[in-house]
Design goal:
Serine Threonine Protein Phosphatase 5, Tetratricopeptide repeat, about 0% strand, 33 helices, mainly alpha, about 70% helix
Length: about 600
């Protein structure tokens, strides 16, 4: 059964946004729309009024504010029209569960209203409901309905009908990517592998879709037991990918192994193991054996699901999480518990500010799936995001024990502990992560930097300084490390000339970063260059006008320049912004007594 997004899910759209699902309205606009709909209901009439003590479901399950308005303005509309209003209100609030329930109720009372039918169908798709297929059959011109029905036909073995539906999709917008992939899979499904590969050939021979088309051509050839063709296409897909992801590499490893290229498959896993982020965790020995022994895509139906996830991931990368979620739901209808689709659904939900729903999606990833460790890492981050830090820490500790060579679990553990003010524990977690890395590479500088931050917060400055210097040895031009180490020296009154040079380099690397610019201005202040300090600190406030520290620094520079009224203005401004604990007392003392004469070093 596909994952059902548990309410608060964005409204769907695919290929071309249906007129009924326009941009999300602001609260005042929503109120105006509800009022207009109520008045329209009065003019048009409606079903008989239910009894005052009828249950909420029979009244349309309206949100309280909407129901109160309905009672005032339209005594005749509280049945089916009330459900319609509830569905529209829930849609505007990105609540797919309530929207689907309410709109399906309204549709029962008025089954032939086209806009209501389209709204109910879209909500049913987004909520993962079985009724979506029944509604899709009543929407012959709807592209999303055509995709859903093509998948249903494929599952039933009606490949000719599925192909006909896919051919009906327009070759424009997102369909330019999805249509040829799905068409090739339907042709493969009815046994015409040559036609499938011919469909993809124009794309595999060049152009921006070469990589994804070659990947699907490789999977089609692999399902058809054509190992040499599969190998040729997968090598093109790998060469076309600037940064191969976990899914591509595991698919490729299996194809290469079946083509007799086991050593090349193993080399792919070695590439994965030196990558960034989470891929090394998921590429343990068991995952390697599973990827090389089984097909990641075992049928044409699964290939269609893979195509929908691929497009969804691309759309999410372009800032369209609601489209990505729609495609993830379509994929899950074809392949329930498909880990890449569940991950895409979770990431899309998280992008659209629904972390609890994202956590639920990730919990559906099968524990035996090679991507389960990756899902667990994502889930830990989301648990921390919703203030369930102890649950997140438990997940990460379990992963760290299950994968004793992977640095990611203790590194994420350190991040959470550091953010929660548990600096000494964070430093210990980073110690473990760094010990698992072996000889640090240039890409490992964030681990040393993070441990340095934890050690500094724990009061061990010599060890922190050593970590910052170590991070710079790995990445000498890393502006944030340059900034932090130099700023720390300035605050401590140490190595001021060296700090100034480092900060000037950091500003050159990040000329629009207000925090780095502030560091340079503050260094100049401590060096006694007050005009230079004011120039840079004023520029920093242009980029970070609501940063309390920067405003406080500018106030100090103004005072040192004899501009006392301006200094007090900046200090008062800083007091009204978010401050570190204890800073407000220092600023209040400056407002009362002025800046101490010893504030600058020289």
């Amino acid at each position: 059964m596909p994952f059902r997004a548990p309410s608060r899910v964005p409204a769907p759209a695919l290929l071309r946004l249906p007129r009924a699902w326009g941009p999300r309205a602001t609260a005042p606009v929503r109120a105006a729309l509800v009022a207009a709909a109520l008045l329209a209901g009065c003019a048009a009439g409606g079903p008989a009024e239910p009894e005052e003590d009828a249950p909420a479901a029979e009244r349309g399950d309206l949100p309280p504010a909407v129901e109160r308005a309905a009672r005032r303005l339209a005594p005749s509309m509280r049945g089916a029209f009330g459900a319609y209003l509830a569905g529209r209100f829930a849609t505007s609030e990105s609540d797919a569960g309530v929207a689907a329930e309410a709109l399906m109720r309204a549709l029962q009372a008025d089954p032939d209203e086209p806009e209501l039918l389209a709204r109910a169908f879209n909500a049913a798709v987004m909520d993962g409901r079985a009724e979506a297929a029944r509604l899709a059959r009543r929407l012959p011109e709807n592209q999303l309905a055509a995709l859903l029905l093509a998948g249903s036909d494929a599952q039933a073995g009606r490949w000719d009908r599925a192909e006909q539906r896919i051919r009906s999709l327009p070759r424009q917008g997102s369909a330019q990517v999805l249509q040829p992939l799905l068409l090739a899979w339907t042709q493969a499904g009815r046994g015409n592998v040559d036609a499938a590969l011919a469909t993809l050939r124009p794309l595999t021979e060049g152009g921006r879709l070469r990589g994804v088309a070659s990947l699907h051509a490789a999977m089609i050839a692999d399902v058809a037991n054509r190992p040499r063709e599969a190998e040729r296409f997968i090598r093109v897909a790998l060469a076309d990918a600037a940064e191969p992801n976990l899914r591509l590499l595991t698919v490729a490893a299996g194809i290469l192994a079946r083509a007799g290229r086991e050593s090349d498959a193993a080399a792919l896993f070695d590439t994965m193991a030196v990558g960034t982020d989470d891929v090394a965790l998921a590429a343990g020995p068991a995952a390697r054996r599973a990827a090389m022994a089984t097909r990641a895509v075992a049928s044409a139906v699964e290939g269609m699901a893979e195509a929908q996830v691929a497009l969804g991931a691309a759309l999410r990368g372009q800032g369209a999480p609601e489209l990505a979620l729609t495609l993830a739901q379509l994929s899950l209808r074809l392949r329930p518990n498909f880990a890449p689709a569940l991950l895409l659904a979770a990431e899309s939900l998280a992008d659209d500010r629904h972390p609890e729903a994202a956590i639920t999606a990730l919990q559906s990833v099968p524990a035996t799936d090679p991507m389960a460790p990756l899902a667990a890492l994502r889930r830990a981050s989301l648990l921390d995001r919703v203030d369930r830090a102890e649950d997140a820490l438990a997940v990460l500790r379990g992963l760290g024990e299950a994968f004793p060579n992977a640095p990611q679990p203790p590194a994420r553990l350190g991040d959470i502990l550091r953010a929660r003010g548990r600096a000494a524990e964070a430093a210990a977690a980073y110690d473990l992560a760094i010990s698992r890395v072996g000889a640090p590479r240039s890409s490992d500088w964030p681990l040393l930097y993070a441990r340095g931050l934890a050690r500094e917060r724990a009061g061990d400055w010599p060890a922190a300084e050593a970590d910052f210097r170590g991070a710079l040895r790995l990445q000498p031009e890393q502006p944030y490390v340059l900034n932090h180490l130099a700023y720390s020296w300035v605050e401590r009154g140490e190595r001021l000339d060296e700090a100034r040079a480092m900060l000037e380099r950091a500003v050159a690397l990040r000329p629009e970063d207000g925090n780095i610019i502030d560091s340079l201005g503050w260094a100049l202040f401590r060096l006694g260059d007050i005009p230079g300090a004011i120039r840079w600190l004023e520029r920093a406030t242009e980029f970070e006008p609501r940063n309390a520290v920067i405003n406080d620094h500018l106030g100090d520079a103004y005072w040192a320049a004899g501009r006392q009224a301006e200094a007090r203005f900046q200090w008062r401004r800083a007091l009204g912004l978010e401050l570190e604990p204890g800073e407000s007392t220092k600023i209040e003392a400056k407002l009362r007594d002025g800046l101490p004469a010893t504030a600058a070093v020289r």
